[in-house]
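tool=predict chain=A
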Amino acid sequence: MNALAGWLSVWMVYRLGVQHLNRVLACAAAGIWLGIGDYSNALIDMGVALFVLSAWIALWWWNESHAAQPAQGARWLALAAFFLGLAAGSKYQALTFLPLAAWFVVRRERRPAIWAVGLVCFLLPCVYWYARNAVMTGDPFNPIGAKLFGFSNWTLADYKNQVDDVRAHAALPNFLIWPVVLAPFSLAWRRAPAVHAAIVFCAYSLLVWALTSRYPRYMTASFPLLALVAVLGWQVLLGWIAAGLRRLLPAAGRAGWPVRAGGIAAGLFLAALAAVSLRHTTRELAKVSPTPAAREAFLRANVPGYAVMNHVREQVSGRVYQIALSEAIYYGPNPVWGDTLGPWRYADFPLLPAADAARRFAGLGFEAIVMPDPVARTLAGHEDFNRHFALMYEQDGAKAYRILPPAP
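tool=predict ok
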């Protein structure tokens, strides 16, 4: 489903490029988004990217049809609001697009009835989640609104650790979209209103991202339009390079140079994108496991703790607590407990003295605890650990321990 959302948005980027730029730039934009997207993961970001892209396409169609047919235009506005609601119901970062969308709409539409319809369409796919958060935790934006609404399942330390983790992952996005800053120098900036609007969207997205997380994954929702606008920047950059080379050529060799240079540059750029996409595709296809044995071997080699998680899923009937094996929880029992944040945080359970930890685990119905070898060596180094936890299984650098009943 994650990959399908990404591929669909790739096709949409290509169609936008054909409609508002040209076929070569459309292929380049689709190639950039195909090259930098995270199609092999199971995170929500690619779905959010599809919803945000769909919302802005519908919003532009509303903008174009509003003047001629306001009633028909209102339908596109409602659809845009619905897609933004899907995005906001999937990931909090999508809320950052609302001010830009509101500013874009309010310039043309101020009738309360139309705004009410748009608000209902926006809330329809997302209000449940915010209401659920408010009822369960007191914070509709749990946990990011904790400083305003109060802490519940997260503590101030959890909040700080999460913010610090995001800051630690701050980095520049993929270099293929860097030339987006040159897009205002392109002719399309002045000639195509849709391109002008896309550049404004990208500038807003980059500004919000720079002022908040600076974490590349949190900008994934903007990547499709960033890829589309970045090709204009590449076109400007390559044009400047060609112009510089042209000035260095003798007058006799200048005839037809811009056309030849532009064609050669575009061909080389598309060839490079095709090579990158082919390499990515080949690497991902190599992970496809056609037989159960191949699948088992692949998971054991690539998912830390897979064998132990699979064992406790098959052999343990009580609750299971995991430490630092979050990538393997999909192959363990459902549900499984244990996290760095929230009410089942490690600090409140396995990091307690062994007797206290075993007593607390047993009182909550836990039967086993799984962990990687480095954590097991640290915990088992305490002399009373083995009096309360018994090794039941170990494989591929991870261990599972049975939680012994507390002594009378």
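The chain has a mean pLDDT of 88. The first strand starts at residue 319 and ends at 322.
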